[in-house]
Amino acid sequence: MSIPRSCHRRLRRAVLGVLATLATVAALVVGAAAPPAAAAGSLPCDVYGAAGTPCVAAHSLVRALYASYHGPLYQVRRASDGATADVGPLTAGGYANAAAQDSFCTGTTCVITEIYDQSPRHNDLTVEGAGGAGAADVAAPADALPVTVGGHQVYGLEISAGMGYRDDSTSGVAVNGQAEGMYMVTSGTHVNNRCCFDYGNAETNNTDTGNGHMDAINFGTECWFSPCHGQGPWVQADLENGLFQSDAGYSRNTSNTGTGPLPFVTALLKNNGQNHFALKWGNAQSGALTTTYSGGEPTASGYSPMHQEGAIVLGTGGDNSNGSVGSFFEGVMTSGIPTDAADDAVQANIVSAGYGGPTGSTGTLTPGSEISLRATTACCTADYVRHQNDAAVISAITSGSSALDKSDATWIVRRALASAAAASCVSLESRNYPGDFLRHFDYRLRRAPMDGTAQFRSDATFCPTTGRSGSGTTSFASYNYPARYLRHYDYGLYIASDGGSNAFDSATSWADDVSWRITSPWSP
Asked: Where is the Alpha-L-arabinofuranosidase B catalytic domain (predicted)?
C-alpha cells in the first residue's frame, strides 16, 4: 500500500521535530549557567532565542539559521521526470549545498516547490493556491538567482509576477493581537510597484478579511499612501488594506527615501499587536540598521489591536495579489518582539554571512568566475561591456572610473541557462544586480531579471568560440541564433550577423567587433 504524500510530510515533520527537541534540550543542558547572550557562532534564530523571542518560522535557501540545523532548506522538482530532491546545508549551521541542486537538475530545469521551516514549528512554505485577488501561483525557477554567500555558490528565490509561497496552517505564529517580529534579506535591484512582495503574517483563507488581519514586511516601490519620499524601494508594513510607513500610512520621515538599488537589503518589522510597530532596514553587506518608523499602530479602525490570523505568505499579498517581483534569501518570524540589541546582533550576523562577496575565481569562462569583456576593435580598446539604465553598451572603464561603473562592467560566468546547451556555453550574470543576466531581445542586448521562461533561457545563453579576429580573442555566438554573435556597434550591443539588412549587421569591421578579450573583473 502506498503512503499518501501528506503522511510522508507529517512523518518528516515529526522526525525533524524530535531531532530539534533533542538539540534544544542538549543546548539548554550545556548552556544552563550561561548568561542570556548569544555565542560568537550564533546564527539569527540562536540570537533571537537567547533574547527570549524564539523563531516560529525560519526560511532560507542560502544557509542554516540555527547553528545546529542540518535539515533540508528547500525542495526542487525537475521538469524531465517530475522527481524531487531536498537541498540542505553542507554542514550543520552551514551554507546550502547548491552543487547537489546543479547535479540533480543537469540537462533539464528545476523549480522550487517547498521552502522548509528550520524552526521546531515546521511551518513549511509550498506554492500558493488561488486567492481573492489572484489565480493559483506557479513555482519559481530554481536557478534564477545564483549568488555568492560566504564564498559559496548558492541560490536565492527570485519571484516574478504569478509566483508565491504560503502556509495557511501554521504553529506558533502570532494571532489576534499577539506580538511578533520578522525580517527578510531581499534585494533592492529586483522590485516593482505592484502588489505585493510580502513576507510575514497573513490570512488563513487567502482572501482580504479586513484591516489588521495581516502583519507582513513589504518591499517594493508601491506608494500606497502619499506622500512617499524618494524613489524607493521602501520597507513597509502590509497590515492589510494598506502599505504603511507610519501610523498615518504615508511617510512622516522625509529622510526615508528608500534603500535604492542595493543588491542585498535587510528589511525588518516588529509589532506588539496592540499599539506600536517599528520598521528598520540595513545594507545586508555592511553597517547597522536604520529605524525609519517607531510609533503607534495605524489610526484607522481595525489596527489597534491587530487581528492577525497566523498564515505565512512569501511573494504575494494576503489575498494572493501576485503582480509583484522580488528576491528572497532568508527570513524569520519570532514569538514576541525582539529587543533592539537582538536586531542589531542579527544584522551583524547577516553582514558576516558574506552576501555578494567575491566568487574566488576571476578571468576565465569557468562557471563562477568573475570577468570583464574588453572590445578589441582599434577604435575601442579601452571600452568594456557594461549595463547602463538596463541597456547593454560599451564604454571606457579605467582605474579612475567610479565604483558603480566598474561594477556595471563586471559579469559572473554562470552555467548556461538553456538546459540543452552544450557544456561550454555560458550565461552572464550582472555583478551588482543579482539574478539579472545579459540577454538579447529584438537583437539588442540588455540586462534583465531571469523569469524562468524557455525564451529567456535561450536569449541569455551564449556559446564561446575562438575569436573571429584571432589573436587570442573570444567570440560569443547566440545560442538560439547561432549565426549571430555578440557585437558592439555605435557603442550599443547586438547579436549580429556578418552582413545583413540591419545597420548593426554591417560587414565592416565585423570580425573585430565580435571579438573580445576576457579580462580580470573591474569590480572584486
From this structure: 44-355
